[in-house]
Write a structure and sequence with these properties.
alpha+beta
C-alpha cells in the first residue's frame, strides 16, 4: 500500500513505478520536515536572539505547511499545533493546548495498548514512524502516518516531542479495496457482485464521481455494475454496439484506449445517449478499456462527473489500481466458465456431454407426468466408425465426429438437445414429440447423414443407427428411457445398420445377447483369451523410452476382435471390471519382469484401473503382493486413474490412492480435462503424472483454443511438479508444439501404435539403435 494520495506537495511521476517514487517523496518530506522542526526546537531551547528569530520563521513555515505539526512537552502536553491540525482534525488550537497529546489524538478511539506502544517508542529517545487509526473531532475515521521526533536535553531526558502527521486515509481505503476485491475473486463471487463491490469502494474514496463497469460481449456492451445510477441507465444502454461514436464507453472499447468527454451535452460521442446522462446531473465522463493480458477488451471502467472537471492525479491512481483488479476478476470469471464448459461440454464437438445429459433429460420430463405431453429420446451410434479410426487415424476420426455433430445441430431446432455420450454415441432429446414426430425427425437426420463427409480430400461414407424410446410409454426415468433407446439402436445394428427403430418389449432380446457376451467375457478371462498390448511413451526432449502403457485386447474365437470400448464398459456393468484390472496388473508386471530379465530396459509400465476397483479396500495390498511376486520396485509401476476416482466420495478410493502413492507407486490422471467439475479436486489426489487427453490433440496444429488448453494443462502440471504426458500425438507439428512447451512425455501413433510384446521388443531394439535426434522419427 502507498502512504498517501498524490497532492500538490507530492506529484505523480509516470506509471506505477512513479507511484512508488511519490510514496518515497512523501515519507522523505515528512521526515525532513520533522527533523527541521526538531532542530529548530533544540535551537530555541538553547537560547539566543538569533535562535529565537529562526524559531519564529520556522514556526511560520510549520504553520503554513499542509503537514500537521504537533509539539508537546516532556509530560506529553500539547504546547503547539499548526493550522493544518485544525483543518485535518477539526479542533481549534484553544481546545487542545495544554491537554495530553495521547488523550486528544489517539486515546479516545484507540486501545490502551496502542497508546502505551506509542509512548514506549517515544520514551526510547529516537525518531520513529507509525501508522495509526484515529478520528477527528466529529468522530470520522482518519488513518494517519506519524513521524515522532523526541527532543532530548543535555542530560538525555525528553524535553519535547515533535510529531508530523500525514493523512493516509485514502490509501488505507485503497488497501481495503484491493483486499476485498481479491477476496471476492478468490471466493468466486459472481462477476456483477465483484464489480459492484469495486464501484462502491471507489465512490466512497471519490464521492464526486459515479463509477460504472460494463462488459463487452460479441461487440456489444452489457452493464455489470453502476450502484449509484438508476437501473434504467444500464438497461437502456445494454446491447448497444461498441463503435467510434457510441458514447465514452463504446468508443473506449472500440478504440482500446481511454476516452475523455468534458461536456456530455455538446460532445458528438454522446449525441445518442446524452438524454440518459444529463437528467442525472452527469456532465462529463472518463472511460477506460479493461484489457485482458491477451489484448482483448473485456469491458470498460468509467467515471461520471457532476461537473465539467477533468480527472485528477488521484482519479488516475484509482483507475490504474481498479483496472488491474477488474482484469483479475474477468480472467477468473472466464477461467471458471471454461472449467464449467470442460465439465459439461464435450471439448471435441462442443455438445453437452454425459455429465450434462442427466440434467437435460430431467428437464425434458419434469412436469410431463401431469400434462401427459410426450417426449422422444434418440440413441444414435455412427456406423463403422471404428473403421475410420483404424484406417485413417484418430485425427481424421475426430474431424469426422465434429462434422456429424455439426449436421445434427443444424438439423435440430433450438428447443431440442443433442449430446455426445462418448465415442461415436450421441443422445438426442425431442420434447413435446410423439411417435409420428419422432419418425419424421429420424428420417431427416438419416437424410442429413447420408451425404459423405469429405476430410482432406477423402470422401468418407456416413450413416448412423438410431434407437428411439418414448416418454411415458417406454419409461418414466432417464435410465429406463436411455436403456430402451440403446436396446432399439442395437437392434438396428443387428439388422444391418443405417436405419432407426422404436423400442418394443420384444427388443429385450438384445439385452439377453449382451448378457451372453458378458458370459463370453467371463470365459475369456478364465481361459486366458485376453491379451495385453503395449504402447510406448517417450521423453519429448531426447526420444528415450519413459515407459509403456498396457492396453487390454480381446479376440473371441467366433466373434473375432471385440473393441475395448465395448467389453470394458460391459465388464463394468456385469461386475468383471475388478477381475480384469487385477489380471492386467499381474500380466503387465509379469511381462515387465520378463523384459528386464532378458535385457530389455523398460523403466516402467502403466496400467489402467477402474474407479470401481479403487473402492475395494484390498486394492493396495493386492498391488503390493503382485509387485513382490514379480520382484519389481514400486517405482516401476504407474496406476492410471480417471476422474471417477477424483470425484468419488467413497473414503476407500482416496485411502487407496494415498497408500499407493506413499508406497512409491506412480499415479497418473488419465483423460485430464474431459469431464471433471473443479480443478480444486486435482489437489486432493497425490498424483505424480498428468495425461493430456487425445481429444485436445486433434486440433492442436491450427486451433488456438486447443493450443491454449494444452498450454494450460502443461503449465498446471509444471506448477504442481507433475510429469505431463500428451496422448494421441500423431504428427510432427504436434510434437514440435508440445516440445516447445516443455511437455515431458509423448504417446501416440507418431511414436508407435499399441504393440504385442514381441513386436514391442523389435520396436525397442530399433529405438536403441538410433541416434537420439532420430529416435522418435525412426521409432514411428
Amino acid at each position: 500500500g502507498f502512504a498517501s494520495a498524490p497532492t500538490a506537495e507530492n506529484l505523480r511521476i509516470g506509471s506505477s513505478k512513479g507511484i512508488d517514487i511519490v510514496a518515497s517523496m512523501r515519507v522523505s518530506s515528512t521526515l525532513i520536515c520533522g527533523e527541521l522542526l526538531r532542530v529548530a526546537v533544540v535551537r530555541h531551547i538553547s537560547g539566543g536572539r538569533a535562535a529565537q528569530d529562526e524559531m519564529a520563521l520556522l514556526s511560520l513555515a510549520a504553520n503554513e505547511t499542509r503537514r500537521v505539526v504537533i509539539i508537546s512537552d516532556a509530560q506529553r502536553t500539547i504546547c503547539y499545533v499548526n493550522a493544518a491540525f485544525t483543518e485535518m482534525f477539526g479542533y481549534e488550537r484553544a481546545e487542545v493546548m495544554g491537554k495530553s497529546a495521547e488523550a486528544v489524538f489517539v486515546g479516545k478511539y484507540n486501545s490502551l495498548e496502542t497508546v502505551s506502544h506509542l509512548r514506549r517508542r517515544a520514551d526510547g529517545g529516537t525518531s520513529f514512524q507509525e501508522d495509526v487509526l484515529t478520528r477527528d473531532k466529529f468522530g470520522n475515521e482518519i488513518w494517519v502516518s506519524l513521524v515522532v521526533n523526541p527532543i532530548l536535553d543535555a542530560a538525555g531526558a525528553i524535553r519535547n516531542v515533535v510529531t508530523v502527521v500525514t493523512n493516509i486515509t485514502d490509501n488505507k481505503r485503497l488497501q481495503v479495496l484491493q483486499r476485498d476485491a481479491l477476496e471476492a475473486v478468490a471466493s468466486d463471487l459472481p462477476l456483477p457482485q465483484t464489480m459492484a463491490l469495486i464501484c462502491r469502494h471507489v465512490e466512497a474514496m471519490a464521492p464526486e464521481v459515479s463509477c460504472t463497469i460494463f462488459a463487452v460481449e460479441d461487440g456489444k456492451v452489457r452493464p455489470l455494475a453502476a450502484p449509484s445510477l438508476p437501473e434504467s441507465f444500464g438497461e437502456t444502454i445494454s446491447g448497444a454496439p461498441i463503435g467510434p461514436t457510441m458514447g465514452s464507453c463504446g468508443a473506449a472499447a472500440f478504440r482500446g484506449e481511454p476516452v475523455w468527454v468534458a461536456d456530455i451535452a455538446s460532445d458528438p460521442l454522446w449525441a445518442n445517449f446524452k438524454h440518459l446522462a444529463l437528467p442525472l446531473g452527469l456532465q462529463a465522463c472518463w472511460s477506460n478499456p479493461i484489457k485482458l493480458r491477451d489484448g482483448r477488451v473485456a469491458g470498460t471502467f468509467a467515471f461520471y462527473f457532476r461537473g465539467k472537471q477533468g480527472p485528477s492525479a488521484w482519479h488516475e491512481y484509482l483507475v490504474d489500481t481498479c483496472l488491474h483488479l477488474c482484469v483479475l476478476a474477468f480472467e477468473r470469471h472466464e477461467a471458471k466458465a471454461h472449467i464449467a464448459r470442460l465439465a459439461y461440454y464435450d471439448p471435441l464437438t462442443g455438445l453437452p456431454n454425459r455429465a450434462a445429459l442427466g440434467e437435460r433429460i430431467s428437464a425434458a420430463i419434469t412436469g410431463r407426468s401431469a400434462s401427459g405431453k410426450p417426449a422422444a429420446f434418440f440413441f444414435l451410434d455412427i456406423d463403422r466408425f471404428k473403421d475410420v479410426n483404424d484406417s485413417l487415424g484418430h485425427a481424421v476420426g475426430d474431424q469426422f465426429l465434429v462434422e456429424i455433430a455439426r449436421r445434427l445441430r443444424r438439423q435440430l431446432s433450438p428447443e431440442n438437445t443433442v449430446s455426445r455420450l462418448g465415442g461415436d454415441e450421441f443422445v438426442i432429446i425431442l420434447p413435446d414429440c410423439d411417435a409420428a414426430g419422432a419418425a419424421s425427425a429420424a428420417e431427416e437426420i438419416m437424410d442429413s447423414l447420408r451425404e459423405p463427409v469429405v476430410i482432406d480430400g477423402t470422401s468418407l461414407p456416413a450413416s448412423a443407427s438410431i434407437g428411439i424410446s418414448l416418454y411415458p410409454s417406454d419409461g418414466l426415468d432417464d435410465g429406463t428411457l436411455l436403456r430402451h433407446a440403446d436396446t432399439a439402436m442395437y437392434q438396428v445394428k443387428a439388422e444391418g445398420r443405417g436405419s432407426y427403430r422404436f423400442f418394443s418389449p420384444e427388443m429385450n432380446q438384445q439385452t439377453q445377447d449382451r448378457l451372453m457376451l458378458a458370459a463370453a467375457l467371463r470365459t475369456a478371462l478364465a481361459e486366458g483369451q485376453l491379451r495385453l498390448h503395449y504402447q510406448p511413451q517417450v521423453r519429448a526432449d531426447n526420444g528415450s523410452l519413459q515407459g509403456v502403457e498396457a492396453l487390454a485386447r480381446w479376440t473371441h474365437p467366433v466373434l473375432g476382435e471385440i473393441s475395448p470400448g465395448r467389453f470394458i464398459v460391459l465388464a463394468e456393468t456385469c461386475g468383471l471390471i475388478e477381475a480384469i484390472g487385477e489380471w492386467a496388473l499381474d500380466a503387465a508386471c509379469r511381462q515387465l519382469k520378463d523384459w528386464r530379465a532378458r535385457g530389455f530396459d523398460v523403466p516402467q509400465v502403466s496400467v489402467n484401473i477402474s474407479p470401481l476397483h479403487f473402492r475395494n479396500r484390498d486394492l493396495f495390498s493386492r498391488v503390493v503382493e503382485i509387485l513382490d511376486r514379480h520382484e519389481l520396485s514400486p517405482h516401476m509401476l504407474t496406476v492410471e486413474i480417471t476422474e471417477g476416482v477424483m470425484m468419488d466420495d467413497c473414503p476407500a478410493s482416496m485411502e487407496n490412492a494415498r497408500a499407493l502413492h506413499d508406497y512409491g507407486i506412480g499415479l497418473s490422471m488419465d483423460d485430464f480435462g474431459t469431464g471433471y467439475s473443479s480443478l480444486s479436486h486435482l489437489a486432493k489426489l497425490p498424483i505424480t503424472e498428468l495425461k493430456i487427453d487425445r481429444s485436445f490433440m486433434a486440433e492442436l496444429e491450427a486451433d488456438a483454443n486447443s493450443q491454449a488448453v494444452a498450454r494450460a494443462v502443461i503449465r498446471i502440471g509444471q506448477s504442481l511438479g507433475l510429469t505431463v504426458v500428451a496422448e494421441g500425438v500423431e504428427t510432427e507439428a504436434q510434437r514440435r508444439f508440445l516440445t516447445a512447451l516443455q511437455c515431458d512425455v509423448l504417446q501416440g501413433y507418431l511414436v508407435s501404435r499399441p504393440l504385442p510384446p514381441r513386436e514391442f521388443e523389435r520396436w525397442l531394439s530399433l529405438l536403441h539403435s538410433l541416434a537420439l535426434p532420430e529416435r522418435i522419427e525412426g521409432a514411428a
